[in-house]
Amino acid sequence: MSTTDISWMGELAEKWTLYPYIVDDPSPPQSLQIPQNKGHEAMVYLTFIINNWENLPPRAVFVHGHRSSWHQQGDIVLLVRSLRLSALETAGYIPLRCDWYPSCPGEIRPVTHDAIQWGPGVHRADAENAISEAWDTLFPGVELPQTIASQCCAQFAVTRKAIQRRQKADYERMRDWILETPLIDDVSGRVLEKLWAYIMTDDAIHCPPPQQCACKYFGHCELRDWPVPPAGLAKWPPE
């Protein structure tokens, strides 16, 4: 938003090309225009992919406008700087949060609706129901998984190869769904938040153990640096 301080982006300009989308800017540069301010960050991410399809960079990091947040493990500048690009090339997709809370390992159960409930402050049911209803539109001909899980919270690094596992038309269809859905932005944006890992990897459950994620992808290999999963969720894989 125009009220968000994004001056921190300049600290990454030496090694990254910056695309500072301002979703409520009435007259943005043509390269940073979006069809409508709807669906939160999903509209921006999808628009970037669609508009740059023919010249997508070898790797991209999709982030919110804030430098720090409760759902983010530390300073975003330090987080991006610590990202191991060689590991990204191998993995294709890396979440910028390693901690399992408040998403992995079995958050969304769109068929049986018996997923883990994290608490009253985490609104899972609305996204779960919306995913069930939107699945055939977003992924026509694909069976709805029993479980969908990945680290929160719609911030990730991804390679061009991983993005282009799907066709441009797939991303256009996702964006059209956001433009057309009557769901409020908070819900439609969360639908995509829960699906980015699946979109980029085709893994319905994409929950690398926090310690492995922190060490392998960000070089935080000391025990004190490891995110700790909530009590009762240390067992992997989930039953």
UniProtKB/TrEMBL annotation:
Entry-linked InterPro entries: DUF3431
A Pfam family that the UniProt record links to this protein: DUF3431
Top-level taxon in the UniProt lineage: Eukaryota
Protein name: Uncharacterized protein
Lineage of source species: Eukaryota, Fungi, Dikarya, Ascomycota, Pezizomycotina
